[in-house]
Task: structure prediction
Amino acid sequence: MEIANRQILITGASRGMGRVFAMMCAENKAYLHIVIRKSDPELVEQLMKNGAKDVKVYEADLGTRAGVESLLEKLKETPIDILFNNAGILVGGLLENQSVNEIYEMLSINVNALMHLTHGLLPGMLSRKRGKIINHASVAAYMNLPALSTYCASKAAVAAFTESLRLELKGTGVSTLLLVTPGVKTKLYDNLEKSCEKNIKFPGEAISPIKYIEIVREAILQDLKRLEPSGLPGLGLKIVKFVKPIFDFEISRRFRRD
Ligand SMILES: NC(=O)c1ccc[n+]([C@@H]2O[C@H](COP(=O)([O-])OP(=O)(O)OC[C@H]3O[C@@H](n4cnc5c(N)ncnc54)[C@H](OP(=O)(O)O)[C@@H]3O)[C@@H](O)[C@H]2O)c1
Result:
């Protein structure tokens, strides 16, 4: 799908990959609808300067059902072409050390809000016979790691949801793009390193958000259904798929409980 002149809704646009994605869409002359938690006039100014056709801001907390409902209410009359379900948080560490409140919050944002927004915007896309739903999963959906159990589960849910929808939407004009994202240098990645460093050492380097979003842009333009990483994370995915015992052995070697 083209990016130019499309109405694009981006959650988690305040920073990290969401922000870089919004900048990329602005440069590609799209109409932007950005979902953030706190007003950010500088961001809007920058997006307009970068070439956005227009920028609409929606303040919403996606950690609550009411937050998602009120966002959908505001979008009732807006023909969104591309929905980028990007907002997410990470809770890491041994399960018994994770906070139950934080687990609930993570599942609300990473899973419930993503499904709810898709549910709310899909009927309009279907009636217009045009749309793309981009869901931000992770290599963690497949590489199920110790000290990251609840986060991996949240991303596995995103992957399963998106793969089911891909089949369900065949021939409707609405497509899905599943992002099986590797480590990308953002605040979430720093949090991952901090919350898991006592228990596991992750192999490989994180890439820059700008580099990754450029690859995502190509995937949108080429209408790919799934974006998997290359290099070491890509190899890791193949090992998980075809020789799981090797993956488990290598991860067990890197993991310690204390
Ligand atoms: N970085 C990686 O290595 C990596 C790898 C695989 C997948 N991912 C996925 O990529 C996506 C983007 O993450 P990132 O790495 O760019 O992280 P990030 O820099 O931490 O950005 C996360 C975004 O989510 C927003 N958000 C968090 N809680 C929210 C809430 N309750 N309501 C609305 N928005 C909320 C944040 O907004 P505030 O500024 O308001 O907090 C922020 O804009 C996530 O789904 C993540 O799981 C990341």
In short: Residues 62 and 68 are 6 Å apart (CA to CA). The longest strand covers residues 31-36. The pocket of NAP is lined by residues 12, 14-18, 37, 61-63, 86-89, 109, 136, 138, 181, 183-184, 186-189, 206 (CB under 6 Å). The chain has nine helices and seven strands.
